[in-house]
Amino acid sequence: MIQTLFGSTEQKPSLFERMKEAVTRTRENLSERIEEVVSFGKEIDRATLDDLEAILIGADLGSSTTHEILQKLRDKADRKQIKDVGELKRLLKQELLAILEAANQQPPQRVEGVPEVILVVGVNGTGKTTTIGKLSQFLRADGKTVLLCAADTFRAAAIDQLEVWGERTGTEVIHTKPGGDPSAVLYDALQAANARHSDYVIVDTAGRLHTKTNLMAELEKMRRTAQRIIAGAPHETLLVMDATTGQNGLQQARLFTAAAGVTGIVLTKLDGTAKGGVVVAISRELGLPVRYVGVGEKVGDLLRFDPQQFVDSLFT
Fold first, then answer.
1. Do 149 and 202 form a contact (C-beta atoms < 8 A)?
2. Which of 178, 138, 144 is nearest to 159 (CA)?
3. CB-based burial label for 188 (10 Å; 0-12, 13-18, 19+)
4. Nearest-CA neighbor of 255 among 208, 203, 290, 223?
5. CA distances from 125 to 121, 122, 170 (A)
6. pLDDT tens digit string along 190-243?
7. Where is 173: in which H helix or E strand?
8. In Å, how far are 20, 81, 160 from 14, measured between CA atoms?
């Protein structure tokens, strides 16, 4: 509850309400369009599901994910098991949730007695450094101590941007001069985190194009450096993806996943797209869990992803 100037209170939005608000455009593009093509009381048959195919692809579930879902629904339609639009939505929710939960089987690795190291990777422009700032705030709000490592030394602006986020969230940033060795600054950051008994170290990395083999070699060197100082590090490697790029971001994600050992996805700008179905496509095609979603520009606009809440918000 939030106390206002005049003594009354207002309810802080729940996580579900914030997710629902973030996917408004996607919900309009998916749930409301389903109701448009399936009139009240109309029998659900294969022709209806052909219309549904275009809607799902329009919401950016991707052709292969859409095909898999519709194959199951067509089997039910042939047996007259989908009575109306309400039943169709219920079954669709069930299929979407099954895909998301299958990818979320592997929880984040948790460590005791040493700093947990989170490596953050992704192409420039996806919101990587901003996401790191928001993640720092998210963890600090949970009572954790956090150290930021500015290992994107290739781009001077990235160091400056991370320092701005450090000031905004009250988080120390370990950095070196532009053009310095990323592994060297990572070494310094991990030594500092050990000495201060920090709970988390979040590492920004260079966001050059995924086709640059030297970037991938650099990431591998950083992983080896981390493992020498802290056992099992990095404990989580998060790939930041821009939801507005949709299917176009999947190829980048595949290459980063193969080269950097990605363990989870952060999907930014979910509130800025009508194609939030890409969350499902990512889960199915990459087999990776979505850990967090960005739902706005403010420092607190990073939500831990919950498959049930996401699916419910699309149809409520």
1. yes
2. 178
3. middle
4. 208
5. 12, 9, 24
6. 999 999 999 999 999 987 654 567 777 888 899 999 999 998 999 999 999 999
7. strand 172-174
8. 10, 35, 34
